[in-house]
Q: What sequence folds into this?
């Protein structure tokens, strides 16, 4: 069932709802199927895959923080080859689009994993996770450097015609520049943003709480950071943006659409209430009706009025 | 069982303390904000529950002589198992420890249900002074050990079980996010040969990660590689 | 009254308590005097001063967010000359050390304001606010660039022998490198961190909530980000660190000390309970006694065990 | 008056609704989490209060004919002023508006205290349909106007007062952080010639920023430059 006015296009891929379940937060969808109606979800972004199997980081991998949480899973996954061999049957039967996610430690790793995913019809689109903060201990990911970003996107673009989403990091000074590099190399959409780097310390035991020391902060705590990132990226590129970071309600979702996102990602919210995505879709429909709008696109970027001019805040008084 | 209260808090994981055809009983310690919210519910208010999630103790094979080790809040997760074992004729000995006497709760119900009960507190205010595992250490080896409590207690229990050459089932505690196996945040290293090991390519040293919320929370002590 | 074991040195300045009231959050101290005992506070960092008077940003300037708040004051201040002429008498009588804060838009502005503050005995030390996110609309502050950071610190160091604190921004990829540049140019201490850039959108009116569009996020929401920043900076420099960002309790404060901070800044917490600084000082004393410690320094950096090694999280399984 | 509840929430700003030698009465609308927490307090529980902060309505000069305009929760801040004015012999007319009838509260107390009361609701469910300022607009010019309510209502009131050439005192609402004048987060542009303008170097256009929490929350309409 499609709700009028909520569909969204990511490259050639048309999704009935603008709600994507964040990579790493939603398994393959099957884990959440007993608690959520996957036919009311735009797409599931699968857990990021690497060339070789990875057991991920030492435990603990999760810490709850004020209005958020830290995770340092470390890209646990069975590797692309094993995944393609064992997991695709289930994906083929999924009631919503499945988007593959690719992570790696070298440009050729992204290229190889992308090429393998691109060959599979069960995969509707590919997201490049160049921004996972949990595998580079000092936080330097591909998404922190415009040239590295460009290199990865170029390599991936060469091997697939599937819609290509590039997932950006908030742990940078100028996210708009990095977004432009990704767009210039052929990204069909940008996911904005991945988690913010952070850590927590156990003050009883005098040691970091996470096995990996540093982790990625998600949840409502980071929403203001993510909304600003979307706002800045939307001014710099023309491709659609998938806004994410701390969305738990329809009002939160609207912040992202108004900032310039065409779709949203929902991650952490699923952990405390798997009905959130479904509720947001229903409430977005109601919102459009109530405001007399026909399509969600009518509000995309509508609060994006630029920045206060330099003169305004000079405001010299003497 | 995951109980998501309103707002942006994470869900609370709780074991089912007691249950019949009509009711589910939960027993929990008010430890922070989320359990305080739960405890603040009044009769007639509704709350969303997801579960039961994961596995439980495996009571097949009709063991006749079972030791149950519970630490603190862990008591909540072993009552149903204790009752079921007594019902099939097993002799059940509960070893139950907490920091202080006031934190020892509900153990009379175990006694009434037909369990033998031994208590320990860290400050000696009730039962024996010290850790509950000291009681188990001195006991005659049972046929099976079940345990639920803080991780250090579980590790000590596993070591004792190994020395006694008795199988032990441990209900592990961990911080959860999704609670349904979707995020790989709650793993424990386990022998890949275990029936509980998740589907994964062969690992070099034969160890993989099982999800406590999905393949667990109960694991066989001898299969853990933690 | 001095609590044993809590004093801290910032250059040649010895403070009886390791608690600094964050710049811009505590006025000149006088505003909070009816509600807090200033003699139980390490120091007040004054609102940042610029060369000329500034009326600051358009309203609204404040938004509350999950476990935090956004502010975009825009450095409202009467300018250094007027300030020195009218406000110093009150400062001279303050029951705790007063630390001047300097902001600016050019290196020579920092130099001029610093020189003027340095001449005044009422000012115990000088903090360089090179990281205010609310006056550079795209977020590029001096603290986002190692060379600009070095230039400002060098200029300030030339004109003052007072203890010099450099306040860093979390809105960067490699904060440790920037910290090293500040230290190399003679900073006596580093304040880590200023606010994180963010924004919020009014979904009823379809417009940014802040007059300045973007603002700075503070409060418990950013604590994991701030703790990691302190942890990283502590590994890179030898000067003392003043850790700040979301401290509301003694446990929060301990996270910062264990990460490597020698002192802490308290800002937003004062807004909902002005007794927080005093309570933390009392509880820190109790903590030391309970743990059998004589000096808070014994725990500084004690949870700073480095990062997980690359091998650990390779963890390849096949 | 700022009421900091436990936890990391910001304080709630509330006007004193009523007061005598022993008690302070607060009247507030449950609008969100913080007021819900406040409303959840039971008799005997304690709560920390800071205040009263800022100024109040200036009732000097004994005005004889006063119009009070209140919107929504703004009603809470004008009761003490109304009572004081009636007590010194002024004739007081309360114009009170809200979205709907259920949100019009406590106005009988104003009537009992001797005020004339006119009501408006946006949906017409009580009193006149429309904004409360429409009532004021048609009224005979009073000697003084006091107003408290949402900013659009205050702006409309200021415009009417200017047309009527009547002084108006407006109690402004804003998001606060410190509440004591320390953060400059709650400012309003005001003529530098105002007695309420804070100490600041001469501004080019004669306009500076006053802090609503410190120099206000009550300002003279004719001195605002918003
Ligand atoms: C499989 C499983 C089953 C569980 N079953 C139960 C159950 O039946 N009953 C039950 O009460 N809990 C149970 N727990 C623990 C439960 O999920 C919560 O962690 C606990 O109740 C605290 O929730 P909170 O949000 O109120 O506290 P939080 O806000 O998470 O914690 C508040 C503070 O208390 C400390 N703390 C948290 N938990 C404990 C604890 N258990 N003992 C001592 N200190 C603690 C934390 O360090 C923190 O500082 C179970 C956990 C698991 C993994
Ligand atoms: C000088 C001054 C005096 C005040 N005196 C009083 C008083 O005496 N009584 C009183 O109840 N309030 C008063 N307020 C308002 C009060 O400070 C709170 O803003 C209000 O009570 C909501 O608090 P909350 O935390 O529960 O809601 P929040 O969590 O802040 O808000 C919840 C939701 O309600 C909306 N909302 C917030 N306030 C209102 C409102 N007033 N009307 C409609 N929607 C709103 C917000 O947009 C938000 O979405 C006063 C404010 C000022 C500036
Ligand atoms: C437990 C967890 C695991 C995650 N794993 C991945 C991952 O493998 N790949 C990825 O691109 N993002 C991953 N993320 C980031 C999320 O997809 C999402 O971008 C981020 O959490 C912000 O959104 P949220 O606040 O709605 O969770 C993970 C997030 C969490 C909380
Ligand atoms: C309202 C407000 C105003 C601030 N103004 C300044 C300022 O003028 N100069 C400065 O260096 N930092 C300023 N800050 C940053 C704080 O000093 C502090 O570094 C930051 O808020 C993080 O700490 P916290 O979470 O304890 O508030 C301001 C913060 C707030 C909330
Ligand atoms: S909590 Fe997500 S896999 Fe267990
Ligand atoms: S709220 Fe800080 S100055 Fe008014």
A:
């Amino acid at each position: 069932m499609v709700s009028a006015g909520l569909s969204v296009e990511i490259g050639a891929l048309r999704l009935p709802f603008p709600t994507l379940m964040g990579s790493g937060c939603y398994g393959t969808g099957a884990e959440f199927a007993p608690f959520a109606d996957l036919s009311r979800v735009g797409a599931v972004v699968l857990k990021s895959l690497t060339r070789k199997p990875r057991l991920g980081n030492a435990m603990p991998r999760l810490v709850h923080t004020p209005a958020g949480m830290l995770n340092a899973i470390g890209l646990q996954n069975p590797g692309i080859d094993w995944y393609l061999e064992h997991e695709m049957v289930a994906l083929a039967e999924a009631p919503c689009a499945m988007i593959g996610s690719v992570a790696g430690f070298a440009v050729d790793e992204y290229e190889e994993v992308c090429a393998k995913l691109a060959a599979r019809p069960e995969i509707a689109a590919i997201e490049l996770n160049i921004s996972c903060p949990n595998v580079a201990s000092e936080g330097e990911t591909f998404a922190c450097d415009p040239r590295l970003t460009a290199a990865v996107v170029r390599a991936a673009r060469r091997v697939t015609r599937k819609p290509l989403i590039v997932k950006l990091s908030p742990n940078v000074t100028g996210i708009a520049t990095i977004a432009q590099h990704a767009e210039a190399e052929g990204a069909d959409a940008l996911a904005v943003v991945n988690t913010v780097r952070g850590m927590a310390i156990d003050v009883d035991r005098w040691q970091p709480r996470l096995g990996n020391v540093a982790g990625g902060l998600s949840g409502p705590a980071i929403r203001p950071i993510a909304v600003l990132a979307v706002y800045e990226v939307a001014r710099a590129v023309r491709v659609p943006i998938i806004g994410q970071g701390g969305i738990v309600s329809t009002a939160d979702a609207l912040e992202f659409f108004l900032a310039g996102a065409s779709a949203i990602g929902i991650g952490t919210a699923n952990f405390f209430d798997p009905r959130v995505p479904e509720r947001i879709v229903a409430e977005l429909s109601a919102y459009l009706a109530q405001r007399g709008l026909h399509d969600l696109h009518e509000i995309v970027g509508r609060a994006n009025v630029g920045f206060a001019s330099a003169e305004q805040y000079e405001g010299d008084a003497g | 069982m995951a109980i998501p209260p309103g707002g942006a808090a994470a869900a609370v994981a709780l074991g089912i303390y007691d249950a019949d055809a009509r009711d589910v009983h939960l027993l929990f310690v008010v430890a922070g904000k989320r359990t305080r919210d739960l405890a603040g519910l009044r009769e007639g208010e509704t709350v969303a529950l997801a579960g039961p999630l994961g596995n439980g103790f495996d009571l097949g094979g009709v063991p006749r002589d079972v030791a149950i080790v519970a630490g603190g809040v862990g008591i909540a997760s072993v009552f149903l198992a204790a009752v079921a074992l007594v019902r099939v004729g097993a002799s059940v000995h509960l070893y139950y420890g907490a920091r202080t006497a006031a934190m020892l709760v509900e153990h009379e119900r175990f006694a009434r249900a037909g369990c033998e009960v031994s208590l320990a507190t860290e400050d000696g205010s009730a039962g024996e002074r010290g850790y509950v595992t000291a009681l188990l250490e001195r006991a005659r080896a049972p046929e099976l050990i079940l345990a639920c409590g803080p991780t250090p207690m579980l590790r000590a229990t596993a070591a004792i079980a190994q020395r006694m050459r008795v199988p032990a089932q441990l209900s592990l505690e961990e911080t959860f996010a999704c609670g349904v196996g979707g995020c790989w945040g709650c793993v424990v290293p386990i022998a890949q040969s275990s029936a509980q090991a998740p589907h994964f390519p062969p690992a070099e040293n034969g160890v993989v990660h099982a999800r406590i919320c999905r393949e667990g929370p109960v694991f066989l002590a001898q299969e853990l590689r933690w």
Q: What stands out?
A: The domain at 8-313 of chain A is CATH 3.20.20.70 (TIM Barrel). The pocket of flavin mononucleotide (ligand 4) is lined by residues C 22-25, 47-48, 71, 73, 75, 101, 129, 132, 167, 194-195, 218-219, 244-247, 265-269; D 177, 183, 185 (CB under 6 Å).
